[in-house]
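Entry 14. Structure prediction run on the chain below.
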Amino acid sequence: MTVRDIRSHLEEIYGVDVSPDVISRVTDAVWDELDEWRNRPLDEVYPTLYVDALNIKIRDGIVSNRPAYLARRRRFGGQETRPGDLDRRLRRGTLQVLAQCSH
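Output returned:
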């Protein structure tokens, strides 16, 4: 998201006008923590993995539809995780999935 996108989102959702300078300072302040969270190790085993695909248009010489696979994991105890990129999640340490569901 751009600073302009964030600013318009804050205006639309919360009705507040935030300067671009404040948005830049806040994002700079939390960027390292966000990057660390994105790259943290994942659980090795998930009992359930929900998989779906979103077809998006990609221009690579020609325009074609390609799937972007999304996954939502359910931990032991029933807690669900936020959706995210399936390939990236598997590279980050998930070794075993007990049940996979898709639609």
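The mean pLDDT is 81.
Filed with the rest of this week's runs.
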